[in-house]
Amino acid sequence: MSDQLLDDIIGGVHDDGLDAINEAVKERRAVLNRRMAANLSVGTSVRFTREASPKYLQGALATVMVAAKSGGKSVTISLDEDVGRFNAGRSIRCPVSIIEEVPS
Question: Domain count of the chain?
Fold first, then answer.
């Protein structure tokens, strides 16, 4: 990412376009989430990101049990270990926006 772009936004250079920038970011995230959902198949290892709530799920590892339907925004996963109130092996339906694939 361009440090100059970030500096310009923080410095107020793009104040008139902040709403448009925000909308473009939302649209881009939606595209990336759909792409990731399409690539997550049964058996894929995933990790909860810092967007996950409750916070104790952040960093927890899981395995995809049910892949997203075409155009879907969520998958069903199974935790690899007990985490907080969630037991290992328990099926959890979650949005793809709060998980990331773990490189094999």
Answer: 1
